[in-house]
Design goal:
Layout lengths: L18 H13 L3 E7 L5 E7 L1 E3 L2 E4 L6 H8 L2 E7 L9 E12 L4 H9 L2 H7 L12 E13 L1 H4 L5 E5 L14
Antiparallel strand pairs: 1-2, 1-5, 3-4, 4-7, 5-6, 6-7, 7-8
Amino acid sequence: MSKAYPFVEPPWPEDPLPKEQLEERILQLIGANNVCVLATTRKDGHPIASPIEYHADGLNLYMFPDPGTPKLLHMKRDPRVGLAIESGFKGWQSIRSAQYFARAEILQPHTPEWNHGMTIFKWRNAMEELGMDTTNPIEWELIKIVPDRILYMETWLWKDGYNWKQWWLADDNDVAPKPLRPN
């Protein structure tokens, strides 16, 4: 039995967290980080995952991939993506992460959607770090990730009487998978 963290011991609660509280926890996690691992699918069906910087607008994430990169080409062919954001594993008492099941929207420069995304993505900081002129934003395609489902995991939820794995669903009529337990 864990003396420091007794809540990590069974029995584990299975109750869902109310959606508003779940969204707040997801927003805290994505706001405390700015790099995720984005997974796309190659033409032959094999997945490819790579880290990429993001900036959030609610639960939507904006990314600025280099032109011609495999991930951008994959998203143009198949907009379904997965991504993971995590806070770093320091033991079972500290697990906190989110897995997105989402779709990528490719925003073309100077469209209203791109202009909005550029107010979210901190392009000026990135350009300064790369020694680029920051007078105007770089005119690359911007990616907007829109989640259909998010699997949020936080073991501290056990302490509050909730399942450590929580499903956020964009469609309230969607059905979440049954609660998941550690193996």
